[in-house]
């Protein structure tokens, strides 16, 4: 009895790991099971099927490596015309493409088809910090760039590092290479360093630190979205404090470059339908995502702008030449 | 008492026939995953995540299954360490040092029983620690900044020379090799790739599991082929399985100390089980000094690291649940699972989702009891897997090594890398250079470097920052003492007694 169950478990494990059927839509998550990209594939895949936008359950393939670079080069080199393929992406994808971290691959080798939710960027300080507003923090850095160190969940030059730099640039501070930043392994680790007083501020995604915000261990100075985030209405946006910045870690998809425009537009429509569904809204709410929907050509243009902007900023801080 | 009533509630959630079945299946699979080289806790848990989804388990059930697998791998890792001299996973590495010599002396059964009991003591007491002190312990993470972490890793390195009892210089060379390998990949402090040669596969650095399986399992295969099986570890037989009460009694103190050390290193995010088992072993070795025969098959040499790594597994739950910070690779995978189940670990988890937390804790206790039964009286079941003739076992080990490594990243590059490490391991063994320090160098090197670089960013390059807190200073003193003491003690103490049996040929 036990051994049959054991075999059944092993068999389903093997199935879960590999094996794609010929006709089903495949969603590549360029990371291990359980990560953000895996979440994107599984949730969008499930809703696509539930809404009957695809006729078979979406097959999720995990292809981890090089921060998404392996999956990217796989899609570019081997799947260029596959119209049944979607790939999970986020701000990390475009940041790394802008910084040439995918071994020479560029953003124009695939087509970015849409984003249907975003993890708002936040800047927080410890609850006993002297900085009461985003302006206090920015002024302190302007007066002495060495007085504030940021901790974030990505390596130097990563998306978390760029967030406060964009705010500072919007405030007219140009010497961004002087801003101190230490890259930790994930947002929660970054926040322990900030609560412990080793760094003065933390920059990251909202979903990573919701628990700390609710518990009152940290004081959020600003959320980097256009509107205040539902459920967290007492956190002011950077915009209303006079800093014209919007930094959201979007969750979305790209598709291979050489599929037809029709196929591209079909995917854009399907994504829009997922974004409008009640199911997706529930998923967003329970995972701390804020609405952020851009699909089709709109999204592609927006991505192009973001990549160009990130390239410039990365050059200024010396991550790329 | 709140804690008691919470715990009762937890058992109420976890003690249904179905969850019990899940616990048994999880423990069984976990022990197997742990015992097979190449499959460790992190990929064992990762493999079962899709299964948990497919079976439509709810949050508590999924957690019961996965924590059972997790604890199971921590128990199982020791089996192949002892019988094959190949660690089943990285925390079990230290267990090879005394476990395998014991097996060669015909005491494999004793080693398995002692390490099984030590595993139970370690994980049981650390689960108790988790229950009693979790909220309190969470704040320890706030006391450790870059300077303190750097001093902690330094402490580990300063005691490293003692791993090889014969030639400390060779241990140092091996550790430097590991440190060098640790530098490959994306540099966290500048965001630039180092030593990758433009190869994207090297961007994430080198996975320890690839290095471990290469250095231990693949090199073992080369040695086996070369010597036609004569010098190989494979083929050690298991004696009669009795309970060595005398050794158990003698190692009680060792188990308790190992548990304490392991638990603390588990609680510290980033330190983890490997550091726990390493520190437990080294501490015990220096406490016992010449009274122990560490490295030559001392029962306490298997008790210490096993208590240490299992205690660390429990300790690692503390930062994961209370802060959402994974204390080890495996808890990182579990954290991801929790997030997918819409459970956000963090300071409010105990308040907002008590049924999940206490159900999880209860399931840890259940898994522990199940594992004790599976790993002491029933250990022969697992041993039998490794006891088949070498000509069957060896191809199997090879195959599982390849499949296990392939399941990590799904890339053939890692397989090639593993073979490269196998060749490296073969030559190191021929030169009598210990391979354990290489792994520790890889494991701790990048953490140590990151901590130092972060400290330098924060302090604007002022090195006195490294001594800026009492914790850091204390760790520095311990590190210096750990490094210097053996040099002096060797003169003070008489020569260690030469073991009568000359069995330690490797």
Automatic annotation (TrEMBL), chain A:
<keyword id="KW-0732">Signal</keyword>
<comment type="similarity">
    <text>Belongs to the UPF0065 (bug) family.</text>
</comment>
<feature type="signal peptide">
    <location>
        <begin position="1"/>
        <end position="24"/>
    </location>
</feature>
<dbReference type="InterPro" id="IPR005064">
    <property type="entry name" value="BUG"/>
</dbReference>
<dbReference type="InterPro" id="IPR042100">
    <property type="entry name" value="Bug_dom1"/>
</dbReference>
<protein>
    <submittedName>
        <fullName>Tripartite tricarboxylate transporter substrate binding protein</fullName>
    </submittedName>
</protein>
<dbReference type="Pfam" id="PF03401">
    <property type="entry name" value="TctC"/>
</dbReference>
Automatic annotation (TrEMBL), chain B:
<feature type="transmembrane region" description="Helical">
    <location>
        <begin position="169"/>
        <end position="186"/>
    </location>
</feature>
<feature type="transmembrane region" description="Helical">
    <location>
        <begin position="323"/>
        <end position="344"/>
    </location>
</feature>
<protein>
    <submittedName>
        <fullName>Tripartite tricarboxylate transporter permease</fullName>
    </submittedName>
</protein>
<feature type="transmembrane region" description="Helical">
    <location>
        <begin position="45"/>
        <end position="71"/>
    </location>
</feature>
<keyword id="KW-0812">Transmembrane</keyword>
<dbReference type="Pfam" id="PF01970">
    <property type="entry name" value="TctA"/>
</dbReference>
<feature type="transmembrane region" description="Helical">
    <location>
        <begin position="7"/>
        <end position="33"/>
    </location>
</feature>
<keyword id="KW-0472">Membrane</keyword>
<feature type="transmembrane region" description="Helical">
    <location>
        <begin position="388"/>
        <end position="408"/>
    </location>
</feature>
<keyword id="KW-1133">Transmembrane helix</keyword>
<feature type="transmembrane region" description="Helical">
    <location>
        <begin position="261"/>
        <end position="283"/>
    </location>
</feature>
<dbReference type="InterPro" id="IPR002823">
    <property type="entry name" value="DUF112_TM"/>
</dbReference>
<feature type="transmembrane region" description="Helical">
    <location>
        <begin position="415"/>
        <end position="443"/>
    </location>
</feature>
<feature type="domain" description="DUF112">
    <location>
        <begin position="20"/>
        <end position="440"/>
    </location>
</feature>
<feature type="transmembrane region" description="Helical">
    <location>
        <begin position="206"/>
        <end position="225"/>
    </location>
</feature>
<feature type="transmembrane region" description="Helical">
    <location>
        <begin position="111"/>
        <end position="134"/>
    </location>
</feature>
<feature type="transmembrane region" description="Helical">
    <location>
        <begin position="140"/>
        <end position="162"/>
    </location>
</feature>
<feature type="transmembrane region" description="Helical">
    <location>
        <begin position="463"/>
        <end position="489"/>
    </location>
</feature>
<feature type="transmembrane region" description="Helical">
    <location>
        <begin position="356"/>
        <end position="376"/>
    </location>
</feature>
């Amino acid at each position: 009895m036990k051994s049959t169950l054991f075999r059944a478990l092993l068999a389903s494990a093997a199935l879960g790991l590999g094996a794609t059927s010929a006709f089903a839509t495949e969603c590549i998550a360029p990371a291990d099971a359980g990560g953000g990209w895996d979440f994107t594939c599984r949730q969008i895949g499930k809703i696509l099927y539930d809404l009957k936008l695809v006729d078979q359950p979406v097959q999720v393939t995990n292809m981890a490596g090089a921060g998404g670079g392996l999956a990217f080069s796989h899609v570019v080199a081997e799947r260029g015309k596959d119209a049944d393929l979607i790939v999970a992406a986020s701000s990390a994808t475009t940041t790394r493409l802008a910084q040439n971290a995918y071994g020479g691959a560029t953003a124009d080798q695939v087509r970015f088809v849409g984003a249907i939710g975003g993890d708002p960027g936040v800047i927080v300080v410890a609850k006993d910090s002297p900085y009461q507003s985003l302006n206090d923090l920015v002024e302190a850095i302007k007066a002495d760039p060495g007085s504030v160190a940021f901790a974030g969940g990505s390596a130097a030059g990563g998306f978390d590092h760029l967030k406060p730099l964009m705010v500072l640039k919007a405030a007219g501070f140009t010497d961004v290479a002087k801003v101190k930043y230490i890259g930790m392994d994930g947002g929660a680790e970054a926040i322990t360093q900030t609560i412990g007083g080793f760094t003065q501020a933390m920059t990251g995604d909202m979903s990573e630190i919701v628990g700390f915000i609710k518990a009152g261990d940290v004081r959020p100075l600003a959320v980097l979205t256009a509107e205040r985030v539902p459920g967290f209405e007492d956190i002011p946006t950077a915009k209303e404090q006079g800093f014209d910045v919007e930094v959201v870690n979007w969750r979305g998809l790209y598709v291979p470059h050489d599929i037809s425009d029709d196929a591209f537009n079909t995917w854009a429509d399907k994504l829009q339908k997922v974004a409008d569904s009640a199911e997706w809204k529930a998923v967003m709410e329970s995972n701390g995502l804020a609405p952020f929907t851009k699909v089709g050509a709109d999204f592609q243009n927006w991505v192009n702008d973001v990549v160009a902007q990130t390239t410039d900023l990365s050059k200024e801080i010396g991550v790329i030449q | 008492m709140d804690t008691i009533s919470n715990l009762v509630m937890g058992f109420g959630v976890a003690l249904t026939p179905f969850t019990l079945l899940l616990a048994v299946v999880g423990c069984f699979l976990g022990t197997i995953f742990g015992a097979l080289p190449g499959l460790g806790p992190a990929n064992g848990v990762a493999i079962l995540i899709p299964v948990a989804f497919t079976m439509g388990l709810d949050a508590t059930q999924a957690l019961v299954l996965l924590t059972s697998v997790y604890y199971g791998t921590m128990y199982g890792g020791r089996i192949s360490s002892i019988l094959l001299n190949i660690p089943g996973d990285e925390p079990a590495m230290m267990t090879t040092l005394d476990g395998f010599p014991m097996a060669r002396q015909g005491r494999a059964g004793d080693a398995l029983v002692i390490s099984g009991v030590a595993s139970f003591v370690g994980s049981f007491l650390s689960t108790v620690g988790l229950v009693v002190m979790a909220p309190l312990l969470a704040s320890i993470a706030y006391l450790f900044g870059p300077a303190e972490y750097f001093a902690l890793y330094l402490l580990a390195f300063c005691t490293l020379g003692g791993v090889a009892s014969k030639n400390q210089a060779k241990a140092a060379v091996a550790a430097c090799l590991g440190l060098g390998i640790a530098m490959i990949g994306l540099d966290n402090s500048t965001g630039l790739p180092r030593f990758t040669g433009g190869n994207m596969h090297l961007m994430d650095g080198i996975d320890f599991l690839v290095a471990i399986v290469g250095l231990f399992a693949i090199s073992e295969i080369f040695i086996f082929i070369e010597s036609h099986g004569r010098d190989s570890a494979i083929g050690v037989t298991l004696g009669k399985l009795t309970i060595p009460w005398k050794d158990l009694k003698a190692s009680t103190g060792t188990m308790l100390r190992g548990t304490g050390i392991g638990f603390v290193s588990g609680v510290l995010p980033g330190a983890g089980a490997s550091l726990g088992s390493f520190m437990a072993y080294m501490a015990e070795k220096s406490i016992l000094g010449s009274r122990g025969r560490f490295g030559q098959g001392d029962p306490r040499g298997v008790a210490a690291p096993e208590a240490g790594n299992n205690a660390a597994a429990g300790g690692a739950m503390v930062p994961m649940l209370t802060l959402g910070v994974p204390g080890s690779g495996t808890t990182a995978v579990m954290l991801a699972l929790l997030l997918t189940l819409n459970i956000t670990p963090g300071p409010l988890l105990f308040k907002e989702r008590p049924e999940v937390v206490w159900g999880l804790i209860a399931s840890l206790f259940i898994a522990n009891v199940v594992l004790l039964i599976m790993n002491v009286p029933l250990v022969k079941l697992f041993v039998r897997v490794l006891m088949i003739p070498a000509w069957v076992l060896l191809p199997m080990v090879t195959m599982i090594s390849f499949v296990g490594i392939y399941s990590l990243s799904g890339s053939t590059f890692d397989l090639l890398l593993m073979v490269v490490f196998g060749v490296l391991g073969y030559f190191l063994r021929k030169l009598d250079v210990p391979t354990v320090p290489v792994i520790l160098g890889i494991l701790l090197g990048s953490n140590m470097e990151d901590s130092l670089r972060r400290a330098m960013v924060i302090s604007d390059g002022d090195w006195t920052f490294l001594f800026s807190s009492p914790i850091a200073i204390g760790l520095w003193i311990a590190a210096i003492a750990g490094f210097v003491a053996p040099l002096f003690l060797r003169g003070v103490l008489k020569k260690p007694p030469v073991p009568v049996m000359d069995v330690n040929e490797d």
